[in-house]
Amino acid sequence: MPKEDRRAIHEATLTVMAETGIRIHSTLARRDLQRAGALVDPKALVVRFPRDVVESLLRKVPKTLVLAGRTAEFDLPVDGTHCYFSTDGCGFAVWEPGTRSRRDSVLEDVRRTALLADYLPHVSMYTPMVVPHDVPERAHVAYGVKAAMESTQKHIWSESTSSPEEARTEVEMAALLAGSMEELRERHVLSAIICTVSPLVLDGGATDAALVFAEHHVPVHVMSMAHMGVSAPVTLAGDLVVNHAETLATICAIEAHEPGAPALYGSALSGMDPRTAAYLGGSPECDLLCASTVDLAQYCGIPHSEGGFGSSARVPGVQASLENTFATLTVAQEGAEIIGGLGCPDGSTLLSYEQFLVDHEIAGMVLRILRGIDVNPETLAVDVIEKVGAGGGYLSQMHTLKHVREIYRPMLWDADPYDTWVQKGRKDAMDSAQEKVAWILKNHEAAPLDREIRTELDRIVKAAAGKGT
To answer: What mean pLDDT is predicted for residues 171-194?
Structure first.
């Protein structure tokens, strides 16, 4: 997006924040923002943000951070020079390829997908991908985070936190992993998604949860999902203004409550079917919206995470893979730091183990494209070209042997000729993915947590499940 367009959207957003305002259902957030200089209408619960207040609070956001794994080997510097891929959460069903039908998601699906993420090299962090229907509703977030902590060493990114009580439970669990509450402030082994409510509303429970995370410096990915034409203007620029306003308002609330708390500009914007107003993920408009949020986050100097996967295809397969490829490549080439959503078509509501593996291939290819071409005397290979000469061959050259390992090699498919492919059973990508999933789950084991930590996690989760009974 041209710099002048970024500026125009940002200026329009500041106008909306100052004049229309944001309805904030958190008493604590309204109080903090009023102390910071915002104007609060206590009856309408609307907060209006003078420009200087927004600018002052945004300057408090750390420009870089490290999303930590269980061990330093899996730490992820978020500093504008990396691109990471993550799963996403909010799925409530699982695709069964044998019967081509859906079933309710359960806690075992969280454990299994976390184990897959632990194994797959292009998945840098893990979000519990589905809501487990077989645990108490009030504690499904805690159960999902616990299963993730037990099944992967990679950074954990929680989702669906909707109350400060849930946030406190997650903070307590994360402190166990980090070593203490004090160490958790420095070592961010957990981050959390907090969603806004478009248009221009911050939910009370979710906002209070964000403030709990902020108090302990657990990074918060502020996620607006403004739906063009439905919960935001139908124009792309107007949709971005609503998204930008909600996101900046939440970040301002975080910084007014806990100056210097880490926050990320996270967005998962969607297109609209012009005939029905239905959600479209993976449409060209959706891709442009998600890529533009990268531009807006960079304009404000805020670390960011974006939607990239999340096709609106109702089932895994060709449509989901095609839409995910275009969306992810578009967002990545714009400079996205974290791209989420692998393995969940139908607008991130349906878990497909097979699509997870195919999306992992997409992520690997995108990362290879982002690396570009190395140009130096060694890779220009003028001496090798001189040696082989016109009409020669390169397979026998040591230069080829040395560099052939740099070529991207897919996990799921190869370049076998047709007859060989037939002899191997005519397997397509989904067949190969199904086999690979089974192999990983059978053969890969996650590094175990210490017994004391497992015991304490059990206690915390059972306590969360028992609240309110």
So the answer is: 97
How far apart CA 460 and CA 61 sit, in angstroms, is 31
How far is it between the farthest Cα atoms of the chain?
82
Which pTM was predicted? 0.95
CA 72 to chain centre: 20
Question: Computed over its alpha carbons, how large is the radius of gyration of the chain?
Answer: 23
Torsion of CA 131, 137, 138, 144, to 10 degrees: -30
**H-type alpha helices, 372-428:** 377-380, 382-388, 398-403, 418-423
Supply the pLDDT for residue 372. 96
Q: What is the DSSP letter of 449?
A: P
Q: Which pLDDT band, with edges at 50, 70 and 90, does 469 fall under? A: very low
What amino acid is encoded at 313 in this protein?
A
Q: How far is CA 118 from CA 122, 189, 431, in A?
A: 10, 15, 22
Q: 331 with 291: CB under 8 angstroms?
A: yes
- Rounded to 5 degrees, φ, ψ at 425 are 110, 10
> Exposure string (b/e) for 427-459, b if CB count within 10 Å is 16 or more?
eebbebbbebbeebeeeeebeebeeeeeeebee
**How far apart, in whole angstroms, are the C-alpha atoms of residue 153 and residue 182?**
21
Residue 467 to residues 32, 137, 169, 461: CA-CA distances in angstroms? 29, 11, 11, 10
pLDDT digits (tens, 9 = 90+) for 79-99: 999 999 999 888 999 999 999
Phi, psi values for residue 172, rounded to 5°? -60, -40
Tally the residues of the chain.
469
Domains, the chain, with CATH or none = 3-58 (no CATH), 65-371 (3.20.20.480), 377-407 (no CATH)
* DSSP H helices in 221-266: 236-257
Amino acid of residue 371: R
Find out whether 308 and 328 touch, Cβ atoms under 8 Å: yes
DSSP label of 259: T
- 346: its two tokens: 């139908």
